[in-house]
Every structure is written in structure tokens, then in C-alpha cells.
Amino acid sequence: MTKIDKTQLGSIIVDDSIYNTELTEKYKNRKKWVAPDNRKITGFLPGTIKEVMVKKGDYVKAEQTVVKFEAMKMINNVQSSVDGTVKKVYVSPGDKFPKGFVLVELE
Questions:
Q1: Phi, psi (rounded to 5 degrees) for 80
Q2: What pTM was computed for the model?
């Protein structure tokens, strides 16, 4: 049975034998994972903003729609995952944005 020993990065233990592995440059230069920030509401698809339903200073509740956008000929709703006050709105109707772009930030 193959078991990965997390104390020796770049090594793998198979049947009590240690095998060193070489990491590729692509792996070494990969974007490191960071925990998502629930206060930053991001687009889950690239698209075009159709309607911004909040403005700076508005209080939003969890699951409240804050932005509507068009992607692949469909209108999509972006909802807040937490309660909070709108700190900044980064988009306006007609703006195009990539996947993962911060649309609204909460305090």
C-alpha cells in the first residue's frame, strides 16, 4: 500500500522504502492556494454585468443577490455568502469581467 509521508516533502514511502521525487518547475511555480475571503464576492464565470443591485454603504444579508450578469446567453445571480455592509462595488452595468474577479467587497 502506498503511503505519503507529509514530513518529507518531495518523498514518498512505499513498503517502508523512501523514494525521492523531483518536482517540476511548473509545480514549483504554481499559484499557491489561499483560503477564500467570504467578504469578497467574486464572479464564478466570466461575463458581462447586467445589473448591480447594491451600492456602497448598503447592508446585505447572506443569500441576497448583489449582482446580475450575463454569461453564455444566460442571466446569472451572484449572491452574498455572509451578512455585511458594502465596502466597495468594483463593477457597473456593461462591464466585462474574468472568472474570479472581485465584483463587490463587504466590511
A1: -75, 145
A2: 0.68
pLDDT of residue 7: 46
How far is Cα 46 from Cα 105, in angstroms, rounded to an integer? 18
Count how many residues are written for the chain. 107
> For 1-107, where are the alpha helices, taking DSSP H only?
25-28
**How large is the average pLDDT for residues 4-27?**
74
- Is the separation of the CB atoms in 51 and 77 below 8 Å? no
Find the radius of gyration of the CA atoms of the chain: 21
Q: Which of 87, 42, 85 is nearest to 67 (CA)?
A: 42
- The fraction of the chain above a pLDDT of 90, given in percent, is 66
- Rounded distance between C-alpha atoms, residue 9 and residue 77, angstroms: 42
C-alpha distance from residue 46 to each of 34, 70, 80, 102 (Å): 21, 9, 18, 11
